[in-house]
User: What shape does this take?
Amino acid sequence: MAKLVWSVLCQQALIDRQTNNLSLINTIDEVHPARPQQEIPKVLNGKKVLPIIPMTCSLVTLWERDRLTISESASVRASLVGPDGKTLLKIEAVIDLRKSIRARVLANLPGLPVAGNGTYKFVLRLRSGVTWRRVGQLSYEFSYAFPRKLN
Assistant: This one.
């Protein structure tokens, strides 16, 4: 079975084409954007929507074989859970550990949904049969920065 080695939320993840080395740029553990000047609509076309903070970022995870001699593939899921405990976003991927011992998953996000100030968690799960087993989590703090005063 696959095993989670580490996970990082960062502004950008770069993979060198020649060496396959990974560079993680500006790791994120706090997000404090300026408060929008206008209220963001909470309903669009009759559906409830959450504000999205337009900041590109990458959720990067490294997985490896639990038993080095057994090659396999596995399904993984990252769920973004807001401060109120509600799931805001789900990302699923298949990791292929048949030809290599380790595999990275890079999920590039155009923004992060916001449900208020507080701690947000990416809960990481691995599919085991028909159930999803929790294998780790990554958290960050969110709060709006105070708006700048225009003089």
